[in-house]
Amino acid sequence: MPTGRGLRTVTPVRAKTATLAAAALTAALLLGGCLGRDAVCRDGEYPAKAVGNPTGRVCVRDGQDPPAGYVRYPDGKVPKHVDDEWDVYWRGKTVDESGNIVSG
């Protein structure tokens, strides 16, 4: 039968282990959020490129057309996250009303 002394030494070890595990999980979640990639647009939206403006873009609700002065990015070349391949590619590129690259 365990003595009171044995119970006292086991309980603090378990509590310390649980506390360390919770702290590690919290740190991982916080760091994951800080190191995660920022989305260009929110869920339910897509980005559209500004016509005649190399850096302009707007987020449009899914199912709606881009507003006047903006065009859709070509399929397969849509930036999803800040600094991803297509976000970097489209920087400095200017498009016309048809979405054709005219400079950059």
How would you briefly describe this protein structure?
InterPro entries: SCO0607-like (IPR058119). The protein has 104 residues and is α+β, with helices and mostly antiparallel strands. It contains two helices and five strands.
Please tell me about this protein's structure.
The chain has 2 helices and 5 strands. 37% of the residues lie in helices and 18% in strands. The relative contact order is 0.13. Strand 4 and strand 5 form a beta hairpin. The chain folds into 2 domains: 1-36; 45-99, no CATH class. A 3-stranded antiparallel β-sheet has the order 2-1-3, with no helix packed on it. Strands 4-5 form a two-stranded antiparallel sheet. The protein is α+β, with helices and mostly antiparallel strands and 104 residues long. InterPro entries: SCO0607-like. This is Lipoprotein.
SS element count, helices: 2
- Uncertain spans, ≥5 residues at pLDDT below 50? 30-34
Main sheet overview: 3 strands, antiparallel
Query: Overall 3D geometry?
Result: elongated
Termini separation: 80 Å
Look at the structure and give the mean pLDDT.
Answer: 83
| Strand count | 5
What would you report as the Rg, rounded to the nearest angstrom?
A: 26 Å
The proportion of strand residues reads: 15-25%
Helix content range:
25-40%
Spatial arrangement of strands, main beta sheet = 2-1-3
- Our count of domains comes out at 2
Q: Which structural class do the helices and strands define?
A: alpha+beta
What order do the helices and strands follow? HEEEHEE
